[in-house]
Specification:
By secondary structure, this protein is an alpha+beta fold. The protein contains two helices and seven strands; from the N terminus they run αβββαββββ.
Length: 129
């Protein structure tokens, strides 16, 4: 399970629906998805048996109405920020040891006219060597 999949699982357990971890689906496939994407691991330190670094995860909340996108993005960010991470810490090949979130902000209107609000989650992770 990746960091993005761990965050998507947390959101599912917090009763958010229609989440995707690879691509933003077409409006025909899912009108109002939550899309969770992940960037590459960035190493900050290396020790004999492990390395520590960060994985940036972006959570995009796509809604038909601007107010719904803003409200749902704020609720999702709050759920992630307040979460108990123990059940979601294993994100193979990483273990999440901490998170930091940004405030949700308007990102764009997509090609279907839907409103996209997003926030970033910086996952501090440990990887065994």
């Amino acid at each position: 399970m990746s960091c993005a999949e761990s965050i998507a699982k947390l959101l599912a357990d917090a009763h958010f629906t229609s989440y995707f971890t690879k691509v933003r689906p077409s409006a025909l496939d899912c009108a109002e998805p939550i899309v969770v994407t992940e960037d590459a691991f960035a190493r900050e330190s290396r020790q004999a048996e492990e390395e520590r670094g960060t994985v940036a995860v972006t959570v995009m909340v796509v809604r038909e109405a601007a107010a719904d996108a803003e409200t749902d993005a704020a609720a999702a960010e709050l759920a992630v920020r307040r979460a108990d991470w123990e059940p979601y810490a294993e994100a193979s090949p990483y273990r999440i040891v901490g998170i930091d979130t940004t405030a949700p902000a308007f990102r764009e209107r997509d090609s279907s006219g839907r409103f996209v609000w997003a926030f970033d989650v910086t996952c501090t992770v440990v990887r065994s060597l």
